[in-house]
């Protein structure tokens, strides 16, 4: 006996490579983020400037962790930075699968206030199976980082 849900899952299974290809052709990486529930939940956006992707986390009340300041939740900042690195790898390496996190280390440098936040990623080392990415996150000035992170990903 076959499982009807398994057939539905197979039909709705995402073809990562074609989603990335379409986003690249349209130069609209929002198309890629539409397929990532967490990115939609936190309101993540991305723009391409030449060979660079700049990720944006718009100010959103649901992302506040400390209402007294008000400041972003540290987990939202980390999730935003990790997701930025994943998208960076998927776009520039044209992966056929979503990269898997091997490790992720973040340094919080100052409070991330309730305003737009931005991130940029740099692929610092790429092997056959593992990629190392550094991520910087800021709000009003790139020189005043709110967090920095390093991550290793297993790629296909």
From TrEMBL:
It holds the Pfam family 4HBT. Coiled coil: none annotated. One of its GO terms (molecular function) is thiolester hydrolase activity. InterPro entries: HotDog_dom_sf, Thioestr_dom. PANTHER family: 1,4-DIHYDROXY-2-NAPHTHOYL-COA THIOESTERASE 1 (PTHR43240), THIOESTERASE DOMAIN-CONTAINING PROTEIN (PTHR43240:SF3). Residues 72-142 form the Thioesterase domain. This is Phenylacetic acid degradation-like protein.
């Amino acid at each position: 006996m076959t499982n009807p849900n398994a057939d539905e899952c197979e039909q709705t299974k995402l073809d990562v490579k074609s989603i990335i290809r379409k986003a690249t052709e349209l130069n609209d990486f929002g198309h890629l983020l539409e397929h990532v529930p967490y990115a939609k939940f936190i309101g993540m956006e991305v723009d391409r400037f030449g060979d660079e992707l700049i990720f944006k986390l718009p100010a959103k009340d649901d992302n506040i962790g400390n209402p007294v300041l008000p400041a972003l939740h540290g987990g939202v900042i980390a999730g935003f930075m990790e997701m930025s690195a994943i998208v960076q790898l998927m776009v520039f390496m044209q992966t056929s699968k979503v990269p898997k996190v091997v490790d992720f280390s973040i340094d919080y440098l100052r409070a991330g206030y309730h305003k737009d936040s931005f991130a940029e990623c740099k692929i610092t080392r790429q092997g056959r199976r593992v990629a190392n990415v550094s991520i910087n996150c800021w709000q009003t000035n790139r020189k005043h980082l709110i967090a920095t992170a390093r991550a290793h990903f297993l790629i296909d």
